[in-house]
Amino acid sequence: MRTSELAGRAGVNTETLRYYERRGLLTEPPRTPGGYRDYPPTAVELLRFIKRAQELGFTLDEVEELLHLDDGGPDSCDAARALAEHRRADLAARIRDLQRMHDSLADLVATCDLPRADRSCALLEAIDHRPGPAKPEAIS
Amino acid sequence: MRTSELAGRAGVNTETLRYYERRGLLTEPPRTPGGYRDYPPTAVELLRFIKRAQELGFTLDEVEELLHLDDGGPDSCDAARALAEHRRADLAARIRDLQRMHDSLADLVATCDLPRADRSCALLEAIDHRPGPAKPEAIS
DNA sequence: CTTGACTCTGTAGTTGGGTCCAGGGTTGAC
DNA sequence: GTCAACCCTGGACCCAACTACAGAGTCAAG
After folding, report:
1. What is the C-alpha separation between B26 and B34, in angstroms, rounded?
2. Can you tell me the distance from the alpha carbon of A52 to that of A58, in angstroms, rounded to the nearest whole number?
3. Rounded distance, CA B86 to CA B62, Å?
């Protein structure tokens, strides 16, 4: 399949395909005699995976790492395992944080349901008064 | 408190403070006779709030929106409520997606615990074979 | 009253993730 | 065999969110 078809099916810009290729995220597809890229059908799924991972907060570097693990066969399974576990723990932490923020916002919305006199509407308070997960200073 | 003290306490670069001020995210603090910025102690909490919201995936524009809601007093409570509810729903959706990815990764790790013969180690499969939440085409 | 640490301003550079464009080649329907 | 629709390349440009820098002013200790 050609560039624009793949781009269309995956919901990305054609330039993005070339960009990913430059980055090494997509391997160079075979070319037609005329020099046109000719992607295999699986490329659609691959791109959707990339996009989904990205929406979930993985950087392209991380996505690349994940994809490379998939290349190595069973031999790289231990490395894959370590990386996956690492990312899993990251995700768990992110989820917890987001959940806290979510709950704070839900509380705020609930406060807004109260009669005017009982409202504080103090967004900063609502969100900020639960200190972060033991991360005092000097983050990185 | 002066620029570098605030920056230190909040864990950001001093330039970031000026950047936020240019963006309108921080209001211009009073100045000392010599022209130095003199931040109130509350600025530390404010910055930490900004950073935390950012870590959780809010853009600076969104953070600004959140902060402006806090200015308006009870009058803007209805607007705040709508925005908060919107963001809350966004967060809930993000959390669901992250949770799916998290579970996929956990499955992958579990697969890696199997004896070699039973492993697939196919990351793409592990992650990709659960189609998204009824989101067939044309995302936005 | 000098010296070194700090701050000011405006402007330019960086990183990540694309996106656009000019100038040219390839296809396929007519 | 022509013409629109597509594709190629290399390079420039864009946005968000910083970060760095030059050149000048401020301040407190000695």
Report:
1. 21
2. 9
3. 11
Is some CB atom of chain A closer than 8 A to the CB atom of B115?
A: no
Contacts of A96 (CB under 8 A, 6+ apart): A133
Give the separation between CA A7 and CA A1, rounded to whole angstroms. Answer: 10
Q: How many CA atoms lie within 13 A of B101 on its CB side?
A: 29
The Cα–Cα gap between B110 and B102 comes to 12
Compute the distance between CA of residue A86 and CA of residue B45 in angstroms, rounded to an integer.
31
CA dihedral A102, A105, A106, A108 (to 10 degrees): 160
A59 touches strand C (CB under 7 A): yes
Q: What are the pLDDT digits (tens) for B68-92?
A: 766 655 555 666 677 778 778 888 8
Nearest-CB residue to B128 (from A49, A85, A92): A49
Which tokens hold the place of A58? 């993985």
Token output for B31: 């100045």
What is the Cα–Cα distance from A49 to B128, expressed in whole angstroms?
6
Q: Encoding tokens for residue B59?
A: 């853009």
Nearest to B80 among A98, A123, A137 (CB): A123
> Using CA atoms, how far apart are residues A98 and B49, in angstroms rounded to an integer?
14
Q: Which two tokens stand for residue A66?
A: 């994940």
Burial-class residue A45 by CB neighbours within 10 Å (0-12, 13-18, 19+).
Answer: middle
* Inter-residue contact A138 to B11 (CB < 8 Å): yes
Q: Could you report the per-residue pLDDT of A77-127, keeping only the tens digit for each? A: 666 677 778 778 888 888 888 888 788 778 777 776 655 555 454 554 444
d(CA A140, CA A49): 29
